[in-house]
Amino acid sequence: MKIALIGYGKMGHEIEKVARERGHEIVCIIDINDEEKFDSAEFKSADVAIEFSSPQSALRNYRKAFAADVPVVSGTTGWLQHLNEVKQLCEKEGKTFFYASNFSLGVNIFFAVNRYLAEIMNRFPDYDVRLEETHHIHKLDAPSGTAISLAEDILARIDRKETWVLNEAHSPHELEIKAFREDEVPGIHTVIYESEADMIRITHDAKNRKGFALGAVLAAEFTQGKKGFLTMEDLLKF
Ligand SMILES: NC(=O)C1=CN([C@@H]2O[C@H](COP(=O)(O)OP(=O)(O)OC[C@H]3O[C@@H](n4cnc5c(N)ncnc54)[C@H](O)[C@@H]3O)[C@@H](O)[C@H]2O)C=CC1
Ligand SMILES: O=C(O)C1=N[C@H](C(=O)O)C[C@H](O)C1
User: Fold this and answer.
1) Domain of residue 154, residue span
2) Between helices 145-155 and 105-121, what is the axis angle to 10°?
3) Active site residue 139
């Protein structure tokens, strides 16, 4: 496949490696201040663009890629206030867009375990639930996109929780998410259930960025011949 990269930072470099190992060609690399490249023949020749940039630039990049009729796979976090707009572009204008707050297989298995545990815990109100995430000090958004996905899955299943909050919860109906920033940590997410008697903790701890990058390239391969808004549930079928 011919792949364009939008955002050539930590993830862009990791994705380039995995994509080349899987036999793909990188036809165009667009980083900050490269906007004219969206109009280039190289970009327009791409079968798909993989976008990992910043919360502030993601939506503009999607629009630019769609205008060139290039499908987009994006892992950028912190832009979800525009989600409905992007879904509408897919539905009304037949664009292809694959989004995941976390592309790693391990995290998507962890999401399934989180959903199952939340279903059980809905019947046990003695347990309070909270989330913690730890990432490298360069991360621009908090809480992480992955923590928000975990929180939304919990809110959909635990009736006693109504909304998530970053930092301290002030009511039992709030689901607390604590975000820590330390050194070069690739990403740790923990869901904690605590009663007066005990504590149950489930954790996903990324050892590096390879899992995110492989998932993004698999998603790019999956977009071929497909239209609409796609997610890891479409790719992994669980
Ligand atoms: N969904 C997932 O599995 C994962 C998501 N992420 C998310 O991906 C995003 C990027 O992460 P990293 O690569 O670690 O960040 P990074 O800061 O290392 O790289 C971002 C790159 O985007 C570039 N950029 C900034 N504005 C741009 C623009 N307007 N157009 C094109 N490029 C632009 C920057 O110059 C930089 O090279 C973050 O939002 C992060 O949370 C990160 C890892 C996994
Ligand atoms: O910024 C990162 O590094 C990561 N961002 C994603 C998120 O916000 O959940 C995924 C992963 O945790 C790494």
Assistant:
1) 105-205
2) 30
3) yes
- Whether 220 and 143 map to the same domain: the answer is no
Residues 23-40: what's their mean pLDDT?
98
Domain count across the chain: 2
Residue range 60-72: mean pLDDT, rounded: 97
Once rounded to an integer, what is the mean pLDDT over residues 166-180?
Answer: 97
Rounded to two decimals, what is the model's pTM?
A: 0.98
- Domain CATH code at residue 70: 3.40.50.720
Write down the ipTM of this complex. Answer: 0.99
Residue 238 has pLDDT above 80, yes or no: no
Pocket test for ligand 1, best of 11, 79, 212 (most atoms within 8 A of CB): 11
Tell me, yes or no, if 178 is annotated catalytic: no
Alpha-carbon separation of residue 133 from 31, 166, 170, 179, 191 (angstroms): 28, 11, 19, 5, 9
What share of the chain has pLDDT > 90, as a percent?
A: 99
Strands 128-135 and 228-230: unpaired
Q: What is the Cα 91 distance to its own chain's centre?
A: 21
CA 54 distance to own-chain centroid: 12
- Cα(142)–Cα(167) distance, rounded to whole angstroms? 10
